[in-house]
Design goal:
The protein is about 20% helix and about 40% strand. With about 625 residues, the protein is α+β, with helices and mostly antiparallel strands. It has a 16-stranded antiparallel beta barrel. Strands 11-12 form a two-stranded antiparallel ribbon. A two-stranded antiparallel sheet has the order 17-18.
Length: about 625
């Protein structure tokens, strides 16, 4: 670029020199022209001079060009130096920027580190505070558990005591001579002296003691449970002074539950017939919330020996099968004395000598399917039992003969269903049904299982049991109402003499159910068999049937009704009550509740009418439950 400028400048100077005006023509003939030439020669320089001057000018220009070129070179050097300096400055600036970025990043990291450190410090302080509080709470819990443990740990087993202490009362419009467990099928007819008198009893006998033991193996949970109360009477039990009633066994069983869902339970427990709230689990029985220890008419239950096998099917369904203790309750009228079903208990065999025990051929068998699809709890179950007696054919004058005696048995039973669930906020509803033949003893009313035909063969009686419950629950208050009924079918036969035999026969005489009778005798005279000291036998005075020990004294033996068979057709009960909890916490539970019940007992029509009986009952309970 610099060289091009210098050459351009030189070329301009040369062109300028050659473009100067040319000399005039010297061939003109006039003097004037000669003079002019002379003048011209004297005023214009010569060519050599001009060439010399031009050379000098060119030299001067070349020198200027050289100077300019030198200047340009110097400038280029300066520019190059400046460019180098600018590059150095840019590099320095870039390095400075990088350092600034690095410093900024380090500063940000430092700020983050500082913030993290502050957060860690805050967390440490909070953790230290929480640890201190947790330590205090742990110390408090340890001290509390030492002072009032919820359970006792013994050799790897957790033992949990339980139960409650109860102060309860019952008032009945018509006397039954019964504590807070009402014998529904014994409600008296209008002719009975008890029907004209009310009764009041106070009792603490339903107070309960329980103990739960639990131990865990690698794949099995072991459980043992014991429960008892005082609703039993020994020979010396009375209400005169000490009110010393005997402790009775309610439940006593052991259980093994495998992680695979199989369960095995054996001992005395609630029958598998009894409804449960969770699967088929023991201790989850859906009992009516009543104070009455006999619960409510229509409730199906038993507490007896059983061995139960169950299978959990994914916590949605459960299958269970049980063998349980069997017993036959006998009813009806007019049967001949030509059969043997059982006998009174043998004292040496640890049975009550004043109570009848049937000779059972087999246990009862119960199977159940329980389902919990997501709403509610549903059950369906079946009960099978064997009725067996020994029959002695009737001979001459309808007297039984041992010749040709034989054992007769018949299988029977029933089916049932339960449903329970929450229908609205705080409201639970339950429905129960059981129907079949020979199942009366499983109902709360305790109706008849079987009767004997005129020939001595046992015939199971058809029976139906139903109960509906509605409950409202809140943290302090539970309100409940129950409506239940039990029905016993008519099973009637004619004897060879044309008299009614069986249960509910229309030939039975009911004409005296409304006629009051005077008090009965306290003793009776019976014949005694021959002995070695008295070969002819004799007589003896004994207490009236049903009394125990010494004869009853006067004033305590109401007269029995004459001409009143009064076989129950159905019993219906409605009950309502509530429980209010004054306290429910780690120190236990303190609650009080009243209950009102109305019971109607209807009978089968016989000669003289269809008697019925009613009962109004009011119960209260004040209980303290162990925590």
């Amino acid at each position: 670029m610099k060289h091009a400028m210098a050459l351009g400048l030189a070329f301009a100077l040369v062109v300028g020199a050659f473009a100067a005006p040319a000399p005039q023509d010297t061939t003109a003939g006039s003097s004037t022209t000669t003079k002019k030439k002379a003048v011209a020669k004297t005023s214009e320089p010569s060519v050599s001079t001009q060439l010399s001057e031009m050379k000098r000018a060119i030299d001067a220009q070349q020198r200027q060009i050289q100077q300019l070129m030198n200047q340009l070179q110097s400038r280029d050097a300066v520019i190059q130096q400046l460019q180098q300096q600018v590059g150095q400055v840019q590099n320095a600036a870039s390095e400075a920027a990088q350092k600034a970025d690095t410093a900024a990043a380090q500063s940000t990291q430092q700020q983050q580190d500082v913030a993290a450190v502050r957060t860690d410090v805050t967390d440490l302080k909070q953790n230290a505070t929480n640890a201190a509080l947790s330590l205090q709470e742990t110390q408090k819990n340890i001290q509390s558990s030492l002072e009032s443990p919820l359970a006792i740990h013994y050799k790897g087993i957790t033992v949990t005591p339980g139960g409650f202490l109860a102060a309860e009362t019952v008032w009945r419009q018509h006397a039954l001579g019964s504590d807070i467990n009402s014998p529904f099928n014994s409600i008296t007819f209008p002719g009975a002296a008890q029907s004209h008198m009310s009764e009041f009893f106070g009792s603490g006998r339903q107070s309960r003691i329980s103990m739960l033991g639990e131990g865990k193996l690698s794949n099995t949970k072991l459980t043992g449970y014991y429960e008892s109360d005082f609703l039993s009477a020994g020979i010396t039990s009375n209400n005169n002074q000490s009110n010393s009633y005997t402790l009775r066994q309610r439940q006593l069983w052991g259980q093994a539950k495998l992680n695979s869902g199989w369960g095995f339970t054996g001992g005395q427990m609630w029958s598998l017939v009894t409804e449960t709230k969770k699967g088929v689990d023991n201790r989850s029985e859906a009992l009516p919330m009543t104070i009455d220890a006999n619960y409510n008419v229509g409730f199906s239950w038993a507490r007896q020996y059983g061995f139960r096998v169950s299978k959990n099917l994914g916590n949605k369904a459960w299958l269970a099968f049980a063998v349980e203790d069997s017993q036959t309750t006998l009813g009806g009228h007019g049967a001949s004395n030509n059969f043997v079903l059982g006998e009174q208990g043998t004292s040496g065999g640890l049975y009550n000598p004043t109570v009848n025990y049937s000779f059972n051929a087999t246990p009862d068998f119960v199977g159940k399917l329980a389902v919990e699809p997501g709403w509610g709890h549903f059950e369906i179950f079946g009960l099978f039992t064997d009725f067996r007696d020994r029959v002695y054919p009737l001979g001459v004058a309808t007297k039984p003969s041992a010749t040709g005696a034989f054992n007769n048995s018949a299988w029977d039973g029933g089916i049932g269903a339960n449903a329970r669930g929450t229908i609205a906020k705080h409201f639970d509803i339950g429905v129960h049904f059981l129907g079949g033949n020979g199942i009366g003893r499983y109902g709360a009313a305790g109706l008849t299982d079987a009767i004997a035909r005129p020939d001595g063969v046992l015939i199971p009686v058809r029976n139906y049991q139903a109960l509906g419950t509605l409950e409202w629950h809140s943290p302090r208050l539970d309100v409940y109402t129950n409506v239940g009924g039990e029905y016993e079918d008519r099973v009637a036969y004619l004897s060879s003499a044309g008299k009614g035999v069986g249960y509910g026969s229309p030939l039975f005489n009911n004409s005296g159910c409304g006629t009051e009778t005077p008090p009965a005798a306290t003793t009776t005279t019976v014949a005694t068999p021959p002995t070695s000291s008295n070969p002819t036998g004799g007589t003896a005075t004994i207490p009236v049937p049903g009394s125990v020990g010494t004869p009853l004294s006067g004033g305590f033996n109401p007269g029995g009704l004459s001409n009143c068979n009064g076989d129950t057709r159905n019993i219906i009960e409605g009950s309502i009550g509530f429980w209010y909890r004054f306290y429910n916490g780690p120190k236990g539970r303190l609650q009080w509740g009243p209950q009102y019940s109305y019971v109607v007992r209807n009978t089968w029509r016989g000669v003289g009418g269809t008697p019925d009986a009613t009962e109004n009952m009011f119960l209260t309970s004040f209980r303290y439950y162990l925590p």
